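Example S7 (structure tokens).
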């Protein structure tokens, strides 16, 4: 029995659905189903009743769930004790999503270390919802995440790092936007949103705030692209890479787009279609920034000033 197996069973029970659980765990549904079956074979009993409306835990499943919660909680506390540096003026512990770490942190953090070699940090990466949980449970001091202004949680304090904008990524050599035009106040060519319905859509299928933010504003603007989906991918950075290399288009916050993506593959929608999608450092509501956290936040904020497309 491994911590991964415990997490698999716990997540399936929390979601009452293999499909939803597989999205949260970032694995395929068939792989998760096979893993659950192997666990049941190993312990010699069923953990779920399979019904047309979803999975229902058996009595053995309920006991397994309680044990999984206890073991995973103890395991997290143990890892925290081993890895967490003291909360002093020269150290901090923070988390961010894997996509943000790959697209922003890895480009900024080396220069931060060179500028502040006396500041120590421990960094955790993972899905958005897991990183929020690590902050709620006190395993990290700070989380760096995107957030819609309308979806802030009262249990956290938000320190703005950058107001970002969602842009369209597509390779014009494979996919041509007839409406694309250069306009004052836009860094990239502006396209008519309705024209998106003429092209294949590479959709971020993750259950994360970025995907929800994009879906919500597409719906608010009366644009239904679900009938044009030809590929769904879990991570935003993968959506961008595929959009720049295939006949489809995808959406992404501009700061999450790798510098390796050619400039001619980037397009914008008219101002107001997507409101600013902001990057924040989150702390528990009652906490205060220590000196190292404040220096890091100021450094990230200053470094990103020249990267945002518009305020």
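Recovered sequence:
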């Amino acid at each position: 029995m491994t911590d991964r197996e415990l997490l698999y069973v716990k997540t399936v029970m929390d979601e009452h659905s293999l499909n939803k659980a597989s999205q949260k765990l970032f694995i395929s549904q068939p792989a998760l189903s096979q893993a659950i079956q192997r666990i049941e074979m190993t312990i010699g009993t069923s953990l779920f009743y399979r019904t047309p409306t979803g999975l229902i835990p058996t009595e053995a499943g309920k006991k397994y769930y309680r044990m999984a919660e206890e073991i995973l909680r103890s395991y997290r506390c143990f890892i925290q004790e081993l890895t967490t540096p003291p909360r002093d003026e020269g150290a901090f512990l923070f988390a961010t999503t894997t996509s943000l770490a790959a697209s922003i942190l890895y480009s900024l953090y080396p220069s931060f270390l060179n500028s502040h070699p006396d500041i120590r940090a421990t960094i955790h990466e993972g899905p958005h919802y897991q990183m929020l949980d690590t902050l709620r449970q006190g395993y990290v001091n700070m989380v760096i995440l995107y957030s819609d202004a309308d979806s802030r949680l009262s249990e956290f304090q938000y320190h703005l790092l950058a107001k970002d904008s969602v842009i369209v990524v597509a390779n014009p050599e494979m996919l041509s936007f007839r409406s694309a035009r250069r306009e004052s106040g836009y860094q990239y060519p502006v396209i008519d949103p309705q024209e998106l319905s003429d092209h294949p859509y590479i959709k971020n299928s993750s259950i994360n705030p970025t995907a929800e933010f994009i879906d919500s504003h597409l719906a608010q603007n009366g644009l239904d692209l679900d009938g044009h989906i030809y590929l769904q991918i879990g991570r935003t950075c993968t959506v961008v890479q595929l959009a720049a290399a295939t006949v489809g288009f995808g959406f992404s916050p501009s700061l999450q787009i790798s510098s390796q993506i050619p400039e001619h593959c980037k397009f914008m929608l008219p101002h107001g279609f997507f409101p600013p999608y902001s990057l924040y450092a989150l702390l528990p509501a009652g906490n205060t920034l220590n000196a190292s956290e404040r220096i890091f936040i100021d450094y990230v904020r200053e470094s990103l000033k020249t990267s945002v497309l518009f305020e």
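Notes on this example. The chain has three domains: 3-81, 91-160+279-304, 166-267.
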